[in-house]
Amino acid sequence: MPVDLRxxxxxxxxxxVTRASVDLHVKDELLAKLKRSYETQKPLHIKxxxxxxRPDLHLGHSLLLTRxxxxxEFGHHVVFLIGDFTGMIGDPSGKNVTRPxxxxxxVTANAETYRQQVFKVLDPAVTEVRFNxxxxxxxxxxxxxxxxxxxxxxxxxxxxxxxxxxxxxxSISLHEFxxxxxxxxxxxALKSDVELGATDQxxxxxxxxxxxxxxxxxPQVIMTxxxxxxxxxxxxxxxxxxxxxxxxxPAPEIFGKLMSISDDLMWRYLxxxxxxxxxxxxxxxxxxxxxxxxxxxxxxxITARFQGAEAARKAREGFEQKFSRKELNVAELEVVKVPSGxxxxxxxxxxxEAKLAESATKAxxxxxxxxxxxxxxxxxxxxxxxxxxxxxxxxxxLKAARLVIE
Length: 406
Fold this sequence. Notes:
By secondary structure, the protein is an alpha/beta fold. It has three domains: about 10-225, HUPs (Rossmann fold), CATH 3.40.50.620; about 250-325, no CATH class; about 330-405, RNA-binding S4 domain (Structural Genomics Hypothetical 15.5 Kd Protein In mrcA-pckA Intergenic Region, Chain A, Roll), CATH 3.10.290.10. It contains 16 helices and 13 strands. The strands form three sheets. The protein has a six-stranded mixed beta sheet with strand order 1-6-5-2-3-4, sandwiched between helices. Strands 7-13-12-9-10 form a five-stranded mixed beta sheet.
């Protein structure tokens, strides 16, 4: 179905699709491509590749999907490329050791889960899904040799992770050199106008730009985005660090986790993930909107994106009932027994044992900051003790339990 590409000017499109980008090669080329598309009504081809190394996606992975969706909303053609061939090699980007290869069966199984999840962000009606085995399987030995001749070892060793591993005497397998070349050849096969990736993908994307020139094609513009910070606002979002939001989690979990982030991180998440325009976000900031209200709206937007509008609405209602209105349903809270030997126990220790705080030290800090309530009353003494009995402990806005001191 034809799309009116004149719904937004090239400059307006540029502002939105490049928001929060890190690398842009080359700005003038992207503006020129957008202007040409605007004038000819021919959409740009936007390519983004995902190697199916894991079976599920989290909010950090959705950054690229969100940028792809912005291009879609301006009428451009998006190709969601599943690297079922390159996934068997494993991208060496940022790795200090050779990655163990996946079998084709593992890659195929993971790829199927990707297909099920990406359409929680992308519009399936205007998304083209491709697999790079379509053309890479056909290259054969001769094609691989010819492709290898298009790039030099010296240029390959300019890559930071290869350079670092070589300097440290760590092994670099020859097949790892092939990964950037094969990813770059994807751009040749698809004749992409723009390729998107995370900032750690910069080298690979530049190889694609180089190869397109080698094959007599107009080089793609490449754009990288940041790696999303996790809920702690410090380290990158990762399952291993338990600071992530899975896009397959139940709606109350997604909503609750997003409500736990700091106000500063909320504004960053808004810029990176929200469908609101930059003008709207800046107006919220300038207009003095209450951060709690903004955060609730944002959490509802993201929850609705992954679990549907009705589930998001109920998650917000449940959160407000449980925390904002302080209407804790005590009967539903987990019961945690803390032995005291018949005497008293430090509140900080009890909170740590109940997993309401990471440690007793962290619990003392939270108490000192006024973030802990016992039976609805704020506790400010970090040395406070609890005698035998049952207490309703609430930490911050998201964690609560029934403590039984025995």
